[in-house]
TrEMBL record:
InterPro entries: AB_hydrolase_fold (IPR029058), SidJ (IPR013744). This is AB hydrolase-1 domain-containing protein. It comes from Cochliobolus sativus (strain ND90Pr / ATCC 201652). It holds the Pfam family DUF1749. It comes from the Eukaryota.
Length: 352
């Protein structure tokens, strides 16, 4: 046996092959990538970024996008008529979150017990992995729009497409929903653990340090150097990848492009963001989210968001999930979230 290591669309993969088949496999993948047709990865696929390191199957969909060599990864083999697209938070990308496999399992169970069927998709955006530091929500919207067009197009023909954001992925969804001219339409949104990166920064950085860091970013932007990388000594050590002055300012400044979920935002801001969510939306807040300041009243904050939304578009399943952490790491909280997500998707069927 041989192992072929490949940086495939930004994600390190290891394939176990017989020695005499390795070169044929490389050629097979190269042709499929060039021709841009969906294909399934045979034999064992190991995703190095994934914590469990257990084999599972994905179907790869190359599609046209502003991001070179774009691919979407479809979990399972259900050939479902509908698509649930997962967008993770900062530093995440395809095959980095164990939550996605749990979502896929829930969708498979729903298929077995109901007539409703969804395939789960992930895809690489310009902001995936370390790219978040020098990308933008505008880029996320362009990348999402390309995938939605592909999924709804003639070659795939998904009947419904629902976008699910986790953590900072929720900001991508909010921007997608509120961008003009309008992005390609989808059928619904799921926001899991929407949180304020600005308020998270206040937990990681003393006020004086945060002020100095933000001032440096603002100075660079004023000089027309918004894409210059922030000095590492002005960024919390939790971030090990480069971050541009623009993206840092977007994440941690009041009214920055990423500032959708801060608890101190006025009602007028909610009206221009949540008030423009034109599709049914499920919002699930984690009751014990470790990156939310402890003084934030999550129930009250969620009510502000829901009250700002158009009448009837906030799902009745929305709420604060007691004892849930940011990434839903406990099985009990994960199941509770999945139950709400499945009910939400079933409710979409009633709308048509």
């Amino acid at each position: 046996m041989c192992q072929w290591y490949s940086l495939f669309n930004g994600c390190t993969m290891i394939f176990d092959w017989l020695d005499d088949a390795a070169e044929e496999t490389k050629m097979f993948l190269s042709i499929l990538m060039y021709e841009q047709v969906p294909f399934e990865l045979p034999r064992k696929l190991w995703i190095v970024h994934h914590t469990a390191l257990l084999p599972y199957t994905v179907r790869i969909h190359p599609f046209t996008s502003l991001t070179p060599h774009s691919c979407a990864y479809e979990y399972g083999g259900r050939e479902s008529p509908n698509a649930l697209v997962y967008i993770g938070g900062l530093t995440s990308g395809p095959q980095t979150s164990s939550l996605v496999l749990k979502i896929d399992s829930a969708m498979e169970n729903m298929t077995e017990t109901d007539t409703l069927s969804y395939s789960v998709f992930e895809f690489r955006m310009r902001s995936s992995y370390t790219g978040f530091g020098y990308s933008s929500l505008k880029n996320d919207v362009e990348d999402l729009a390309a995938l939605v067009r592909y999924l709804k197009g003639e070659s795939v023909g998904k009947e419904k497409v629902v976008l699910m954001g986790s953590s900072t992925g929720c900001q991508a969804i909010m921007t997608y929903a509120t961008t003009l001219p309008a992005s390609p339409p989808v059928n619904g949104y799921i926001l899991q653990a929407p949180t304020s990166d600005r308020e998270t920064a206040s937990l990681l950085m003393p006020p004086k340090f945060l002020h100095t860091s933000l001032q440096h970013a603002e100075d660079l932007i004023a000089e027309g150097k918004e894409m210059q990388i922030m000095p590492s000594d002005l960024i919390p050590p939790i971030f090990s990848s480069p971050i541009s002055a623009y993206r840092w300012h977007s994440l941690v400044s009041v009214g920055g492009d990423d500032d959708f979920f801060s608890s101190d935002l006025p009602a007028s801001t909610h009206e221009s963001s949540f008030g423009r969510l034109g599709k049914p939306t499920l919002i699930i807040v984690s009751g014990k989210d470790e990156i939310v300041p402890p003084n934030v009243d999550k129930e009250a904050l969620l009510k502000k968001w829901v009250d700002a939304m158009p009448m009837g578009l906030a799902s009745d399943q929305s709420g604060v999930l007691p004892d849930a952490d940011h990434e839903l790491t406990t099985d009990g909280r994960t199941r509770s979230f999945m139950d709400k997500a499945c009910r939400f998707l079933k409710d979409l069927e009633k709308i048509g």
